[in-house]
Amino acid sequence: MHLALHDNPQSQVVVTALALTIHGNELGSAVIKAIKLNEKYGDLVSFPELKNDSPKMTKGKIKQRVLQLCKDSINSLNLMASSEYVSKAMSNHPEAPSSSVVTILYSFLSYKA
Description:
The chain has helices at about 1-5, 10-20, 25-40, 60-80, 85-90, 105-110; strands spanning about 10, 50.
């Protein structure tokens, strides 16, 4: 997910809603919980991959962005499963240990958000 957020930063309320959805909440209730959590703790978190535009977004917009983050994450996983992409990325870091192991469940990659 880090690559997806690096390429397309999202609001922390979007990331929170996705995490809550992954952990079994229905998307609508996850969005409501994420908004409440962001209101209480939102000022405590700051990362370049997170935007602070939550107060301006409607629940519908948050849902759209959660679904887009799912798609972006799946695209990122597809890239990481590509030996060509991994080789190119690793060539930028010659000091990193070499590995030919990338484990991704392909059943997850076939999910359509």
